[in-house]
Fold each of these.
Amino acid sequence: MKKIVIAALLGLFAATSFAADAACDAKAAEKKLAGAAKESFVTKCEKDTIKASCDKQAADKKLAGAAKNSFEKKCSSDAINASCDKEAAGKKLAGAAKNSYVKKCVKDML
């Protein structure tokens, strides 16, 4: 049962991050950004989208105080990890290269 719940949550985070990718890329294209400016904009946009999603989930669960902060921190961390894993899979990375990429990706997003 635990595995099913975890798989469902990861699927939710991956879907959220995929939607964030597409929306943020569209916004960057609309602003005619390229290169480092585009990367920076997309990264910040994705981070903001993930935070907003986690805030909404915390509000839906009626969390407050330390429980809300803890939930939002874990939610953001899980969503960022799922997003970075998805990017690594898209680049067909495996083993140490994947681990290194995901570690750097997570560090950049936090």
Note: Residues 13-18 have pLDDT under 50 and may be disordered.
Amino acid sequence: MKLTIQTWEGNRNYFLFRRDQLAIPSEYHKGQDLKPAGKGEWKYARCPFQDDTRPSLRINVDTGGVRGMACGAHGSDVLAFHRQLPGLSFVEAAKQLGAWGIRP
């Protein structure tokens, strides 16, 4: 039995992820109604993944990375955070954030 592997070579109109099109982390978090507070690179905000009474979500204002100190949610950028909110796939989240397009 011979296996055939499909590649994207030769297909110029395939979709691709464009990390450079992701929102600036501070702008994205404002749009999500998070209000990061504190000093330094990591700030605290109320966690949208649980019923937070005190801020327990840490947000990296430079990269958009997040870490839920109480619930354990984590992600390295705004895309990872956005995927967790409504439970989207990578492609769905990238499309919603405008970072999914067709290769020129």
Note: The helical segments are 25-31, 78-84, 90-96.
